From TrEMBL, chain A:
InterPro entries: Beta-grasp_dom_sf (IPR012675), Mopterin_synth/thiamin_S_b (IPR016155). It comes from the Bacteria. This is MoaD/ThiS family protein.
TrEMBL record, chain B:
SUPFAM superfamilies: CO dehydrogenase molybdoprotein N-domain-like (SSF54665), Molybdenum cofactor-binding domain (SSF56003). Coiled coil: none annotated. GO terms for molecular function: iron ion binding; oxidoreductase activity. Residues 24-126 form the Aldehyde oxidase/xanthine dehydrogenase a/b hammerhead domain. This is Xanthine dehydrogenase family protein molybdopterin-binding subunit. It comes from OM182 bacterium. InterPro entries: Ald_Oxase/Xan_DH_a/b, Ald_Oxase/Xan_DH_a/b_sf, Ald_Oxase/xanthine_DH-like, AldOxase/xan_DH_MoCoBD1, AldOxase/xan_DH_MoCoBD2, AldOxase/xan_DH_Mopterin-bd_sf.
From TrEMBL, chain C:
Transmembrane segments: none annotated. The lineage of its organism: Bacteria, Pseudomonadati, Pseudomonadota, Gammaproteobacteria, OMG group. Pfam families: Fer2 (PF00111), Fer2_2 (PF01799). PANTHER family: OXIDOREDUCTASE WITH IRON-SULFUR SUBUNIT. It comes from OM182 bacterium. This is (2Fe-2S)-binding protein.
Amino acid sequence: MTRPEYSSDMTTQVIFSSELQRVTGVRETNVEAEDYRSLVSEITDRYKELMATDIMDMSVAINGEIITEPMLEKISPGSEVHFLYRIEGG
Amino acid sequence: MSEAQDFKYIGQRTIRPDGHDKVTGRANYAADLTLPGMIWGKILRSPHAHAVINSIDTSKAEEDPEVFAVMTHADIPNQTASGVQNILAKDKVFYHGHAVAAVAAVTESAAERALGLIEVDYKILKPVMSIDEAISNDSPLLHDDLFTKGMAEDPAVPSNISSRNELSKGDLEVGFAEAEVIVEREFRTATVHQGYIEPHACTVRYDEDGQSMIWCSTQGHFAVRATTASMLGIEQTNLNVIASEIGGGFGGKLPIYLEPVALVLSKKSGRPIKMQMDRNEVFMASGPGSATRNWVKIGAKKDGTITAMKAKLCYEAGWAPGSSPLGPACMTVFTPYDVDHQYVEGYEVVVNKARCAAYRAPGAPQSEYACEMVINELADELGIDPIDLRLKNVAKEGTQTMYGPKLKAVGLVECLEAAKSSEQYKTALKDNQGRGVASGFWFNVGGESSVVINMNEDGTGTIVEGSPDIGGSRASMQMMAAEELQMPVEAFSAIIGDTQNLPYSNPTGGSRTTFATGMAVVEAAADVVSQLKERAAATWNVVPEHVDWKNGAAINTKGEGVLTAAEICGSAAKTGGHISGRGNISARGASPSFAVHLADIEVDPDTGKTTVLRYTAIQDAGKAIHPSYVEGQYQGGSAQGIGWALNEEYVYNEDGRLENPGFLDYRIPLASDLPMIDTIIVEVPNSFHPFGVRGIGETGIIPPLAACGTAVSKAIGIRMSELPMSPPKILKAIHDAS
Amino acid sequence: MAKTHVTTTINGDLKEFLCEPGDTLLQVLRDELGLTGTKEGCGSGDCGACSVLINDRLVCSCLVLGVETNGDVIETVEGIGDSDKLHVIQEKFLEHAALQCGICTPGLVVSTKALLEENPNPTEEEARYYLAGNLCRCTGYDKIIKAVLDAAETMRESA
Ligand code: FES
Ligand code: FES
């Protein structure tokens, strides 16, 4: 896949949903993380108001692939991580 | 990646394995099981839409000689379990039909009679029956502790607005400043029902010191077990839930209504219990899809470049906060369009109607209806063909969605092009006829699926899956196993395991079964293949790497020898025991399916009657495993959407009572209401799936709303906005305009 | 309440049963006789899932009382086709994938049989109107109608 431009610095770009933006105050941030767990601990450290429980109910898209149970996901440098409302079907 | 794969079994039109039983009447559905000593349960329902329960007196019913047990909310062991107040109301009823008590009696009619012996003292409250009423300042409150979630500031006072959502990308001001033409309009859609033909039913047996069992019709029997076990405070291992054949669901058989009540009645009476809703109860107390009021504004340049899209959505949840599909509604509204500046805010309100349930692509039909109607109006304003306008702004690989990720390869361009070159689009229309085009987008979900393939001694296999088969998915599972094992489809049977036979599987819903459970089947089949190779290697005394699997047999690449599955399985006991493959997965990589529909409708200007003359449904399947059932999903979704657009709606009287809880008055499309529904299957593979599959079950219900809405508007030359566009409404619009 | 003794022929077999005056034929078939192939979708004559033939006439069994059927010849879905061979209608439903959930299928098979007995060569429109009393929520009817017309053709050829 084509890497986004910011990938040169080997970090992962995290994009918050509008709901989470209200807590973080920013739309996106870059973090260095090897896996999803460390990514969550990094951003909850960075944004004190952001609770792990806020994101637990959300789905996650890593490089466009929607993952409902991301806890053990590895994250390669240059990845893009989005938090989404949880999607359920009919 | 799965481009240009050659398949041997996938893509064929095999006969489904459960078909024979279904055409002969042998297949057993929810209401078809009778147990020895069984008695019948029935539910007493509130005649009021909004009332406080002062007291319930069950003593007369309890004394009745034909009655074995009576229960109310107080008899549910775990009073704090989630959803428990919808099972039996606690101190307030929130909708006409809300369950308040239940009895078990010797026959169904005795149970019904006994309901009349229960005395409930209500204090009637004013019901809140619409979004407009719910948000007005002097509206009665359903819940005096409901504070709107998701507001910038926490609200100081409670209201009927339960939550607010917001999504955005880009800068609307910039986008609208660039626009040369702007169209904005408000739309309303009515409360609708999934309308499955089989009413909810179950047969249960409570067993003090062993296995309690539930036989029921559900999209997710593991969820039935979890909910019921939690409400009864029992261990999951002591409750086996068997998924009967299911007579339709469309999201409406995800929630649980009867099972915990039946099990408590069984416990109290010491007898097996059967419960079945009658059709009135199905309409009153299950299902409905949210009524909505949605506003959309879109700006474009004269050349058709869309510059900004804005929406404000309002969804009813029914009485229970959080029950509307507002999140997905916001996420889907503009996804078919690659436009830099988009914004949506959404509100959910509570009203005195049954708790809303998912309905096929929950949330998307209503919000995308509003968007697609405005797009079609914009096309008219700009003098651009509506398909060309869509193509000019089309979402494609790399499009940044408003809800998050960029899209991977998707098939919307291909669908639009197929629509444009379809026969229907080239056919001329006559007077009083109109044509509508609309796109639809749905994410599809992945989720947890558990599958075991047990290999028999003769080399055939049994696929045990955890996803209730609602529309022929067992056939697809057989085909995927056959493909992976390179063995004939007939070598496999497929069954839905009880909750005892398999670990947890998510419900059948979200268009996930062929995709996710299919992936689990492939994984289980691959597991079988690797074990078969190991056994062959052991027989030949070579390492497994020197064994190939081809055409259903192991081949010794380092010497002579071929062993078929039958030979390996027949001697499996000698090489380490019998073989079963396992695929317990949390599937990822669900990929969206886009659709484009065309509707040609004629309106009789004297009566307002609509006739759907012609209909084409085009949709990206990624890869169609069983094309007939893919087409069937497109056609079924289309028919439901056509019903939603043209006829279906809940009608309440001023006291909030549902006035049309039956198929006579809640009119779903009949055979005589519809034309043939042409289908075109587009296949742009989902790169995350071994065979390229996308979910396809839900998208098809989205485009019909705007396709039909536009066709009707064009046929009468008046822009309609409110669904359903039923004859009285059309007639009124014609009269008002003249 | 006193029960009434009723004698009927169902799918070729002599069947006797006792029923209460208020019991519908549908209840008798399903709950007394264990013939659960006939389905209940509404109980009010609106869905056709309970379709059966009484003396070759197509009826909704939920609208007929059990006591009314004394002496009648009744055919249900279980009586259609032989035990080792499906009826052409049933075969065509499978071939055309004319069912998804299948709850409407028994009723449709019975109704189609009645249709083709009355009119061996129906037009699409005639088939659609004849079957308008059989609701299907899953299929959009397209494949059902195709199966019915194909069955009609096959039956005409072999007649
Ligand atoms: S059950 Fe008889 S018509 Fe519906
Ligand atoms: S196949 Fe489900 S109702 Fe017809």
